[in-house]
């Protein structure tokens, strides 16, 4: 079926011999021809998912489907998957041509076909004419392209990328992000990319899976993940966030910092305790008389395209502000924002923890 997912995880758990659970009852589906990113901190389980898809390890529980077929016991060399590793895993004693041709030679592909496929792959990654170049003579970005060419030359249905840009400098990394995205769109293949870099994930992906402690916290488009984080972890991990305790008074009315504000959220219980997220770039500096919040400027840094202000309100809540306007350290300023800039999240903590957080800001839950 055309709409059948190319990969489906059904209640997949992975434990190691010491009973450490690295993936905990995970289920998801991946569509064909999209760029997916598994995003999260070290040890969250994202590389484990990659290794399970590749066939390097087997699940402890659950089932992995490829085009609707159970592949739990299918060996790695029989899967229509190729992996680009973090260190590229290129053979230093082989030149560019032989590195790319290696997998085809193992499969005993005819010489003319190997030559055609290798040259086609090199052209695809903008390395035509580099066939005889030694790997040791290649830059980091060029080695990256060789590793990708070696992956696509076998015409796999899925290409797995395990933090392949982490060793590159910032400028080259940015360039390779564009190249990888463009390559995926030209190939029309399913790419599954692993990274802990939030900006990288937001820039490249059709869909992001945010992971922590072996569980998928949230999945969605980059815009969904950034604008509507589902919990504190996602909000804090994806970009910079201001997160404060609040209460959903009723649909489209929320209360925090002792004041009530219009918002764009609905569907929660009246007076439900919530977390409020406002992104730093959504806060505008205004006057004390016109601002919705009044804050004191603690520090100010110039970041090139904007000033980054660390501020705090009278309850001790910290507010990070990104603005093209400059402010004076120690000054009291107003902050303005629109109803749609307020993102309301259900709590992922107990009421006791919530109340303790309020008290730490100098306000009790009763006062709220």
- Beta-strand percentage? 25-35%
Give the overall shape, derived from the CA principal axes: elongated
Structurally, how many domains make up the residues?
2
> How many DSSP helices?
9
Task: Walk me through what this model shows.
One of its GO terms (molecular function) is ATP binding. Keywords: ATP-binding, Cell membrane, Membrane, Nucleotide-binding, Translocase, Transport. This is ABC transporter ATP-binding protein. It holds the Pfam family TOBE_2. Helix 2 (96-106) packs across helix 3, helix 2 runs parallel beside helix 4 and helix 3 packs across helix 4. The chain has helices at 46-54, 96-106, 111-124, 140-152, 170-187, 198-204, 222-227, 232-237, 351-360, and strands at residues 7-15, 21-30, 35-39, 61-66, 69-70, 81-84, 158-162, 190-195, 207-212, 215-220, 242-250, 253-256, 259-262, 272-278, 284-286, 293-302, 307-312, 318-323, 332-336, 343-346. It is α+β, with helices and mostly antiparallel strands and 368 residues long. The strands form 4 sheets. It has a 6-stranded mixed beta sheet with strand order 6-7-8-3-9-10, sandwiched between helices. The protein has a 5-stranded antiparallel beta sheet with strand order 13-12-11-14-20. The termini are far apart. It has 2 domains: 7-227, Rossmann fold (3-Layer(aba) Sandwich), CATH 3.40.50; 241-360, Beta Barrel (OB fold (Dihydrolipoamide Acetyltransferase, E2P)).
